[in-house]
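Ticket #4471: complex job returned nothing on first submit. Input attached below:
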Amino acid sequence: MTIVRLRWALTFAAMRKSSWQTIGYIIGLLMGVGTVVGVGVGAWYLGDLDFANGTSWDYSLMHTVMVLGGSLVCIFTAIVQLMLIGEGSTLNPKKFALFGIPDKTLQSGLTLAGLSGTPAIAGLLSLLLLPLAYRSLGPVIVITAILAAPLAIITITSFSKLIIALATTMLHSRRSQATLYIVVMVIFIALCNLPNVVINSGNPEHITLTPFQMMAGIFAWTPFGAAFQLPFDAFDGNWLALVIRVLILVATWVLCFALGVWCLARDRRYAGESERVKSVKGIGSFSWMPDSTSGAISARLLSYLRRDPRQAMFLLFPVIFLVLFALQSANLPEMVWMAPVLSALFMMMSEANGLAYDGRGFSMQAIIGVSGRNDRLGRVRVFAVMGFVYLLAVSIVAAIVSKSWTSPTGITIAIVCTGCSLGLFFAGLGLAEILSCVFMYPVASMDKPFSSPQGRAIAQGFFPFIHMFACLLSLLPTGIVAIILAVSASSGMLWILAPVALANGLLFLYLGVVLGGRLMDARLLKIVTTLDGFAALQK
Amino acid sequence: MQGEPGALPQERQYQPQQQFMNPDTGAAVSIRGLAKQFEGKIAVNGLSLDIPIGSFYGLVGPNGAGKTTTLNMLTGLLVPDAGIALILGNNVWADTNHIKRMIGVMPQPDQIFDRLTGMQLLIYSGMLRGMARAEVQSRAQDLLHAFDLIDAANTMVSDYSAGMTKKICLATAMIHSPRILVLDEPFESVDPVSSANLKDILIEYAQTGGTVIISSHVMSLVEKMCTHVAIINRGQVAAAGTVHDVAAGGELEDRFLELVGGRHQAAHLSWLDGGNRGDGQTPQTQMPIQQMPGQQMPNAQGTVNGR
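Support reply: We reran it on our side without changes. The output follows.
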């Protein structure tokens, strides 16, 4: 109970300290209320459907959607927890290490604290409103659904707590954490795009309910779907199955609890264990980068990009896009050209907050007195070369997938898309060099890519869009040329867009280095102070 | 070098009539009337100080006295609200980047890129200052040798111990052979052997004409190593001069406590009794604390003194 009180005390304290926190919290609260209202209204209208006392197609559909949907929500919650909220959020078991609280007490306190959080409460209220959909089917199913709601929430909370605890406990070395981070992100993006891939790769008219019903049947016997299946068991009068499923849920909680306690004990036994020291041969890119101040910055940046899972994520985008669009391009081969264009748009998103990724290490530049121009030049050198080669490679793969050489239109599309991607990328890089001196937001520390510094979610949701919007705006000249070509119906001249976009992009790249450099000189000390503030949030 | 004569400032320089005196352009560092406040709290209050060239200068003071704030304003990392700071006759805030390259400021352990190896970090810090790669590489080797880090040259700094990290930080500040070295608590968590080696390097550097400015809490270290000392209290200089002059024939630490104040009698916390709970569970092996006639607990005293 003390831990529950502490949890809320910490939340309120954080709100007092920063108005951004308060705004973030209120937005979270509104989202919670929105979910509850949305689910309630949705369930009410769903209840108007004709379930024909459990025999209609509508009933089977609802049954499948409830069980599968519930299971997916459960799994998603755990993954999102890993990605966004992380263990560093409000309560970290390590912070209690000094107080000698018995592991079991601590673990139950942490679970209770999780259950009393806004997401858990909003989830519970939503699930309690869900039975509105069943109202035409009689009181038994409604009452069981109401009773099943807290069971589902306890399962989701226990499971996500366990996932986080396991991830932080098992992965002692920084390298394995970095790998897991990338794997989880890729799985998440893949899961999000699964529906698109399923629909676009096959014939949508041939999709039937049967395979989904089978999946729902399987999930109903797992802890993820069991709680959502309970009302249907009761409705069917299948009481034995209901009892077994409740037992499955209880066993899951016990297992999660026991494993959580085990994690705490293990953490303590291995606390402070040093990881294997890895040494690096030679001085790496410092030996071949230009022998200058900006060369030092380039070499440092390149060494870091190789070791930083947070930024590596963004550099994986082109590959992910390529795979996704290649899978979806069964009906429309040109679709694959979305990959280089979207990659160009997204790849420099992290660089638009590049200084925050540098963290306090950037202070050394301030101590030494490096000019902003040199810094920007050093960064642009690395990203421009890397992005150019990378996008060109993606474009070549896209050309192969869409067999561009087979038709004149194909060749034109290839040229225009490649040129525009490169132009967009260069413009995005240039803008990133300007924006990163002004709009910074906290990022997870390199040691704990899973953690989430307070106040990140809000700024992270908002600032990247400034960059994206600016990117699109910067290509306005190219857009105007495109419109002129379209209006004058000179489709044979479309290829001209490629050099125009490229010139457009390079102009913004130049402006980015010059203006970004000046901005950095003017704001240097403010940037250092901001980064110090971010570092304090990461602790 | 102790007791070296020179154009030394008088004690209690902060007196108003001296604040706006012309700064000494011949000094390594000359500060006049430097002031800074944070959200209404005064951190540095019209501080004035001269640091002669070739001196090993210690800045000492209690926590929150304004040492680090002063050093930050001196090294171009914090804009002062008022006052002037000269380094070797150049105004720090006129061409900050130029000044920054003349001096060597030791970064804090979290102000470096610790995913580079020790060697890479040194090369980085040299090349950032515009030095040629070949020169940096050979100096980095020398520094790694001198600081007993040659075996860890190719290890990532994040895998270094606290003391090793401190040493590599110091090395990054020395690679360009600066004329002035500014070090904030340089020997904290460095083991005695390494710290003795470091001290030798620093003393030799000062003897060849370099100026070392260190801030420290460790009075014995300042007394042993420094030629000059300034005691900073509440954002002003309480006393400055050669160590010999400031100590005024006594122990520097006693003089420090006298100037800074804040000492009080050991507080008696009746419940802090080392196991004698007085609740019936007491192992009756010790006398109750109140019954020790005329004695003070040495530990309690030490704690309160902050030693």
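Confidence is low (pLDDT under 50) at residues 1-19, 282-307 of chain B. Closing as resolved unless it happens again.
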